[in-house]
Design a protein that fits this description.
The relative contact order is 0.12. Helices cover 36% and strands 42% of the residues. With 88 residues, it is of the alpha+beta class. It has a single domain, classed as Roll (Transcriptional Co-activator pc4, Chain A).
Length: 88
């Protein structure tokens, strides 16, 4: 059995992360987007991101940094929109 975790995006799609073993016992994390059919069957939709388990902490930091940048950019957009509304 492959350990896995899922994060639903909506009722038709989800992110799924699996830990698999390759070659000489090397553990790999695979993260992919999956589609969920009406009958409950699932299929991968598009490519997966695969990284060695020993690199996972770096990937988590990368995603956290990206989230921070997106939140800062969204604040700038919201501030600009508020300024436009105030001047109108």
């Amino acid at each position: 059995m492959t350990p896995a975790t899922e994060y639903p995006l909506n009722r038709h799609e989800l992110f799924r992360a699996e830990i698999t073993e390759r070659g000489a016992g090397v553990q790999v994390v695979s993260i992919g987007r999956w589609k969920v059919a009406a009958d409950g069957t699932r299929r991968r939709a598009g490519p997966a991101l695969e990284v060695g388990c020993h690199r996972l902490a770096g990937l988590v930091r990368l995603v956290a940094d990206l989230q921070r940048l997106v939140e800062e950019h969204q604040k700038e957009i919201n501030d600009a929109s508020a300024a436009r509304r105030a001047s109108a």
